[in-house]
C-alpha cells in the first residue's frame, strides 16, 4: 500500500516473544526504501494475530485489520489505525454473538474517512455468517450488519466506493447441499441495498470484489472447477458472467480482482496445467466481458505457484505478486511480475532469490456459466 508521497505500508504476521505466537507487524518505508517505523500488536489472548488487509487511513496514516485471539472469545476482528508517524490512534475488536470464530478479510474507507471491515463471524446458533462493520475516523463503531444463508456463510472480500457504498462477497451454503456466491451491498449508513446469489451445479464461491468507475460490481471466485468473474451494475443487476479453466479442469479460481483506468477488469488466481500443478494466471476482460488476454506463469520448479496480491497503476500496467516453487537449492520464494496494458506482454518475473523466468501461453476461457436466473434480490 502506497500513499501520495510514495511511502510504502506493509502488514503481516510475525512471531513475537515466547508465548505470544504470531502478532500483527505493520511497517512503513520511505520512497527510498528506508524503514521509518514498525508497530506490533499482540491481542489479549496472546495467541495467533493474523492481519489480512491494509488501507490508507483518514488521518494520512494506515488502517489494518484481521483476526486476533481474544481472552476466552476465540478469534475476534481486530482493527487498528496508525498516524503517519506510527502512533497508534485507536484499536477496536469485534466479538460476534457466537463468541467463537470471527475473522476479518476485507477493509476499505470512504471519502470522509469512515472505515468498513468485513469477514466471517460465528452467529448465536454456531453457524458462520457475514459480518460487515463501519467505524468513524476516530474509531467509534457506527454500525454492524450480519447476513447469512440457509446454512453457514463466510465473507471473503469487501469493496467501498467514495460515497460509502459497501459490497461484501464470499460463499454461502444454499440449503441443497451446495454453495453459492453470496454478494451483499449496504449504503454508508448500513442499510441493505441488495443481496444476490450465484449458484452453480458443482458449487460456487466468491473470493474478492472490486468496484468500477460507475459503481459496477465485479466479483471473482470459482464455479465448479472453473475460475469465475461476475459483473453486476451498482444496483445488483447482472451484466455478464465469464469463467476460465486450465488444461486440467481442476479447481481453478480467481482470488484477486481490480479495475484499470479504462474500466477493464483484471483478475488473478490459480489454474491447473496439464501436469496437474497450479500456475498463476492473470486475465483481463473488457468492460463488456470480452476476454482481452490471459497469461500464465509456471515457476522454475514447475510445481505450486500462487498469487497473493494484485495492483494496477495509473497507466494500466498490472502487477502480480505471490509464492512460487523454484529450483534447488532455493526451492521457494516470492515472485512478482508486470503485464503491460497495450500488448499484454510480461516483464520478466522478479524473485526474492534473484532468479527470473518467463511465461507460458494462456489457456482458452470456457463459455459462460448458466444464467443466474435463480439469483434473488431483496
Description:
The chain has 378 residues and is mainly beta. The protein contains no helices and 28 strands. It has two domains: 1-199, no CATH class; 200-369, no CATH class. A hairpin with a 5-residue loop joins strand 8 and strand 9. The chain is globular.
Distance from N terminus to C terminus (CA atoms, Å) equals: 35 Å
Q: Kindly name the structural category.
A: mainly beta
Oligomer: single chain
Number of strands: 28
Radius of gyration, Cα only, in angstroms? 20 Å
Count of helical stretches: 0
Largest sheet: 5 strands, antiparallel
Write the element-wise H/E pattern from the N-terminal end onward.
EEEEEEEEEEEEEEEEEEEEEEEEEEEE
Quote the average pLDDT.
87
> What is the general shape?
globular
Q: Low-confidence segments, ≥5 residues, pLDDT <50?
A: 348-378
As a percent range, the share of strand residues is: over 45%
Number of domains: 2
Binned, the helix content reads under 10%
Topology:
Layout: E1 8-15, E2 22-29, E3 35-41, E4 49-56, E5 62-69, E6 75-82, E7 88-94, E8 102-109, E9 115-122, E10 128-135, E11 141-147, E12 153-160, E13 166-173, E14 179-186, E15 192-198, E16 204-211, E17 217-223, E18 226-232, E19 238-244, E20 253-259, E21 265-272, E22 278-285, E23 291-297, E24 305-312, E25 318-325, E26 332-339, E27 346-351, E28 360-361
Antiparallel strand pairs: 1-2, 2-3, 4-5, 5-6, 6-7, 8-9, 9-10, 10-11, 12-13, 13-14, 14-15, 16-17, 17-18, 18-19, 20-21, 21-22, 22-23, 23-28, 24-25, 25-26, 26-27
Amino acid at each position: 500500500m502506497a500513499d501520495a508521497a510514495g511511502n510504502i505500508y506493509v502488514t503481516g504476521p510475525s512471531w513475537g516473544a515466547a508465548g505470544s505466537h504470531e502478532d500483527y507487524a505493520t511497517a512503513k518505508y520511505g520512497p527510498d526504501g528506508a524503514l521509518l517505523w514498525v508497530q506490533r500488536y499482540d491481542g489479549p489472548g496472546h495467541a495467533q494475530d493474523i492481519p489480512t488487509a491494509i488501507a490508507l487511513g483518514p488521518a494520512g496514516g494506515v488502517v489494518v485489520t484481521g483476526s486476533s485471539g481474544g481472552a476466552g472469545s476465540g478469534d475476534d476482528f481486530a482493527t487498528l489505525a496508525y498516524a503517519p508517524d506510527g502512533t497508534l490512534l485507536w484499536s477496536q475488536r469485534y466479538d460476534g454473538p457466537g463468541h467463537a470464530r470471527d475473522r476479518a478479510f476485507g477493509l476499505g474507507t470512504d471519502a470522509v474517512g469512515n472505515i468498513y471491515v468485513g469477514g466471517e463471524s460465528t452467529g448465536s446458533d454456531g453457524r458462520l455468517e457475514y459480518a460487515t462493520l463501519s467505524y468513524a475516523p476516530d474509531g467509534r463503531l457506527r454500525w454492524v450488519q450480519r447476513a447469512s444463508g440457509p446454512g453457514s456463510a463466510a465473507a471473503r472480500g469487501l469493496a467501498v466506493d467514495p460515497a460509502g457504498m459497501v459490497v461484501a462477497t464470499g460463499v454461502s451454503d444454499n440449503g441443497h447441499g451446495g454453495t453459492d456466491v453470496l454478494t451483499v451491498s449496504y449504503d454508508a449508513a448500513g442499510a441493505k441495498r441488495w443481496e444476490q446469489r450465484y449458484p452453480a451445479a458443482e458449487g460456487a464461491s466468491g473470493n474478492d470484489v472490486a468496484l468500477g468507475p460507475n459503481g459496477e460490481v465485479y466479483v471473482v471466485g470459482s464455479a465448479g472447477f472453473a475460475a469465475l468473474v461476475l459483473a453486476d451494475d451498482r444496483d445488483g443487476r447482472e451484466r455478464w458472467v465469464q469463467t476460465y479453466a486450465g488444461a486440467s479442469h481442476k479447481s481453478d479460481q480467481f482470488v484477486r480482482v481490480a479495475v484499470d483506468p479504462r474500466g477493464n477488469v483484471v483478475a488473478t488466481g490459480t489454474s491447473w496445467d496439464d501436469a496437474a500443478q497450479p500456475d498463476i494466471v492473470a486475465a483481463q476482460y473488457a468492460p463488456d466481458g470480452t476476454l482481452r488476454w490471459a497469461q500464465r506463469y509456471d515457476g522454475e520448479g514447475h510445481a505450486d505457484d500462487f498469487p497473493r496480491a494484485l495492483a494496477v497503476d495509473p497507466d494500466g500496467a498490472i502487477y502480480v505478486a505471490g509464492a512460487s516453487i523454484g529450483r534447488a537449492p532455493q526451492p521457494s520464494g516470492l515472485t512478482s511480475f508486470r503485464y503491460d496494458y497495450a500488448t499484454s506482454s510480461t516483464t520478466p518475473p522478479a524473485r526474492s532469490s534473484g532468479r527470473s523466468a518467463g511465461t507460458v501461453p494462456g489457456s482458452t476461457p470456457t463459455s459462460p456459466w448458466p444464467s443466474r436466473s435463480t439469483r434473488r434480490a431483496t
